[in-house]
User: Which sequence fits this backbone?
């Protein structure tokens, strides 16, 4: 009876997926016709990954997008030092995640993660042929996990986290789709997440608290954190307010508030939108509220020439956020003034910058609480109050630096997740798949 119930649930799940796919097919065809390069991504999402002999027998690490892929770096570095004979491969769902993987791990095969359709998951695993699968944070796809089980591939969750909202949703379907039973081990970030997994009926012996890999992934704060060229020449040591990983309409609202404060008239405003492809339209929107400030695109700026005083510098390139933060005196982390849940506050804090966020920070609640407790982060309710806090820190660099150092020290004390995560993998999926410990 139990097996029949599961089979019926999987059938219903698959039917719903196919119906959604058919409904979206016309839109997908139009997008492919407009941009033929998308056809490759579509083919790979259907499981037809390119064959790469380097992936055969590899440990496949999957991160859905940029943040999860970046968090892999300390773990992959430690695996390579301890197990130089072990093959590694990386997969990601989003184009930006795959671009990040190719930049961070240029010598590793990088794949597009398949849609959770039975045939796509099976085709993907046949082409990649990994020895085991490691999923970052929480990638629970029933058909993919089912396919891994059928191919007898051990699966681990690392850097595991689950929100209260997600847990409530999983509890509704867990008895019908027992996907949590298909995972060998859960390496989770803290006791809060461990308890939530226990409430999903995950056996306690499968759960281990290993810490947050993102603390290991962020750069260490060092005295004199100078940016590289051309950023050093552009900023020329002048105070800069950085708005990182911003979402629409945060940039325009922040610039409007900055333009209303005379004491910030000569400060540089460096804006790094979460989605750089927005830059052409965003530039026009910023010019409309800039109150005479020049609005410049990073891609059009000549190397080595200092930016004009009070310039708004819009970064329309990918992969330079760390260098931008190194130019800043204060960092505003986006996605927090809109109901998105906030972006990663760790990177600027690890570089010793004091951090400002809006009211929506549930995606990084633990990190925000940690930094706020030591004075390295302030919360604001709206763009105006946020810019008021920024102006106070910009006018008092000694206090800003002290707050930034406190935040960086708090993060440094929490490093070590890469080592504990690797120990867990050695004892579980690597042992099961025949890797040498």
Assistant:
């Amino acid at each position: 009876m139990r097996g029949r119930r599961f089979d019926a649930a999987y059938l219903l799940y698959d039917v719903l997926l196919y119906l959604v796919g058919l409904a979206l097919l016309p839109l997908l065809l139009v997008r492919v016709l407009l941009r033929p390069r998308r056809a490759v991504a579509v083919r790979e999402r259907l499981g037809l990954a390119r064959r790469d002999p380097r992936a055969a027998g590899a440990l496949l690490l999957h991160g859905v997008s940029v943040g999860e892929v970046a968090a892999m770096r300390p773990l992959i570095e430690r695996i390579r030092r301890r197990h130089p004979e072990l093959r590694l491969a990386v997969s990601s769902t989003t184009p930006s995640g795959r671009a990040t993987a190719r930049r961070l791990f240029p010598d590793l095969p990088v794949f597009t993660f398949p849609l959770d359709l039975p045939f796509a998951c099976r085709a993907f695993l046949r082409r990649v042929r990994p020895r085991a699968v490691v999923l970052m944070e929480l990638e629970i796809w029933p058909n993919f996990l089912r396919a891994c089980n059928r191919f007898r591939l051990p699966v681990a969750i690392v850097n595991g986290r689950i929100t209260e909202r997600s847990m409530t949703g999983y509890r509704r379907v867990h008895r019908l789709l027992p996907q949590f039973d298909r995972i060998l081990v859960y390496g989770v970030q803290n006791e809060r997440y461990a308890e939530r997994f226990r409430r999903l009926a995950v056996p306690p012996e499968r759960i281990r608290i290993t810490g947050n890999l993102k603390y290991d992934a962020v750069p260490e704060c060092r005295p004199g954190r100078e940016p590289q060229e051309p950023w050093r020449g552009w900023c020329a040591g002048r105070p800069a307010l950085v708005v990182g990983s911003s979402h629409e309409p945060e940039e325009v609202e922040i610039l409007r508030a900055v333009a209303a404060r005379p004491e910030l008239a000569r400060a540089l405003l460096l804006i790094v939108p979460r989605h750089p492809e927005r830059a052409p339209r965003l530039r026009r929107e910023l010019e409309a509220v800039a109150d005479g400030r020049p609005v410049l695109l990073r891609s059009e700026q000549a190397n080595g020439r200092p930016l004009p005083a009070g310039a708004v510098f819009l970064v329309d390139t990918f992969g330079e956020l760390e260098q931008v933060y190194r130019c800043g005196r204060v960092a505003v982390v986006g996605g927090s003034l809109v109901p998105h849940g906030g972006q990663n506050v760790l990177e600027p804090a690890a570089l010793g910058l004091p951090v400002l966020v809006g009211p929506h920070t549930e995606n990084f609640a633990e990190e925000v609480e940690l930094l706020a407790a030591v004075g390295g982060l302030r919360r604001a309710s709206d763009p105006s109050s946020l810019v008021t806090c920024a102006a106070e820190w910009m006018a008092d660099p000694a206090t800003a630096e002290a707050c930034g150092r406190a935040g960086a020290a708090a993060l440094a004390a929490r490093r070590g997740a890469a080592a504990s995560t690797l120990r867990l993998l050695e004892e579980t999926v690597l042992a099961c798949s025949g890797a040498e410990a």
